[in-house]
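Two quick folds needed for the group meeting slides. Do the first one here.
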Amino acid sequence: MSNALKWYAVYTNPRAEKKVAAELDKRGYTYYLPLQKTQKQWSDRKKWVEEPLFKSYLFIYTNLELHYYDILGIQGLVKFIRIGSEIATLRDSQIDDIKLALEQTQDIELSHDKIESGTLVEVIAGPLKGRRGLVLEKSGNKYFSIEIEQLKTTLLLSLPANYLKISG
């Protein structure tokens, strides 16, 4: 039996992420529910709300061998994410990338002439320093992407050209 603590992604019922997170907290589990502020428009008002970055997903840091059934029994939690027949794990650096991406508030266009779509780049400055990703587009808004493979999701960020170098 392994005592390894690892990050796992779980899938929840729609709009149940915060309820599942509250129950995980109540039971003493370490979890991460990335939230972003968005402005909602109703017919009579506007309001800023925090919504999950990944709809129906959250992350749990646990020893799965010890806590699998307890976690799976939480109301609103549907399943652990699998790749093939194996329950997928995430590296600490992937969770850190999500946290850093949410802290990143820059909205500066990428305009470096040498960097084309599909180029593998490394961030050399700022809070994402040392991370690698692909430039998705070079026309219009310019983005640097961080791929979270297990979720088949890409975070899109605007970074200044001087924060990037072509990765070899």
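Then this one, please, same format:
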Amino acid sequence: MSKFLLNIIISSLAVVICAYLLPGIYLGGFVDAFLVALSIAFLNQFVKPLLVILTIPATILTLGLFLLVINAVIIELADWIIRDGFEVDSFLWALFFSLLLTVVTSVLDVLSGNDRKGRSKGRSER
């Protein structure tokens, strides 16, 4: 299985868990979670870098905390892209969802042995 597909499946499972835990997030099923994970991956790859560059002054002034707002905007954009099957009640729920999604995805990555950064797990390289 390709690394990208494994990352999307893990992210989909994390989306399901987060939607179950947060009352302000509505998810139709696992197919919708898969679509949400794909849209978030796309948005993180192409839209987020542009948003980060455009908001450098705000990010500096807030000592990096504005990046949380950018993550919530990405979730809101995913909500807009996936019209049926995924709904976020408010910006605050998008913020909570993005924070919880990061934690749950990290835990699932550790449990699955998946290493998203591509570092080697063998001997240390010198």
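Slide caption for protein two: The chain has one domain: 3-111.
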